[in-house]
Amino acid sequence: MPNIELADVLRTYGLDVRAARTKIVRHVDPKYRLDNLGEHMHVYESVQSRPVFQGCQYVVSCLGEERMRSRLLWVKRVVGEDTPPRAWPPGFPHPDMQIGGRCYRLERCKGFEMLEGRVIVDWGESTRSWHQWLGAEGKPVIEILPSGFVRSFPGYDDVLLTHTELRAIVANPDGNRVWHDRLSNVSAIYLIAHAPSRRLYIGSASGAGGLMHRWSAYAKNGHGGNKLLRAILAERDDAPHEFAYSILRVLPQATSRDELLAIERVFKRKLGDRAFDLNAN
Q: Staple 70 to which of 62, 93, 215, 258, CB 3.0 to 4.6 Å?
């Protein structure tokens, strides 16, 4: 694609960084997976240890990816400051993460929805400087992903999805074609982990549509027919964000149901008592 600067793209959608004091930030943490924060990313971003948004009118937020790649999350307006929270909200995936002493009120700007999650910029060599003033140049756009794209398929062994990601992948098959192709053509033993309670659910998927068909049920209602998962979801509206989905083993679609269930039982024995905590259908 021809050279395009992020500032030019933002100006097309209504934000002129030459006229408004704007910072661009790249969220990344070597200790924690920030891509599994889901909606909790908003509170994570608002709490800071230093006055990084002082004198700033707008914040262009990005999620750090491999090498220098940074994916645009959203554009926010700095409204003011609040008293910082003493603890992270219920369901926050990393409750041990340190809480900063400043809390900014950041209001998500409308009109940039078509850019969110799709625009990839090159952060440049100064990756340690995670917040920078955004000028008319300096952050080239290196890729614009398909509408609805969540993230690249990492290989079966490295699949780990939040409920938000799973729901988006299921709802946007055109933007996540590789995910649909890979998960639809295998049987699998899978794991659902509930972060707050550390309880586990081990399940198996087979038949037409493979793992994608089974996981589509969780994307739709969060419980897939399981009684104990349904009970957790009944407690709070935001409970789906507390679940993570991963793959323990993939098998050919021709694998018999009896063989699949036998392998499922082996994994339950390997993972011990916690593997039975949520296995009530």
A: 62
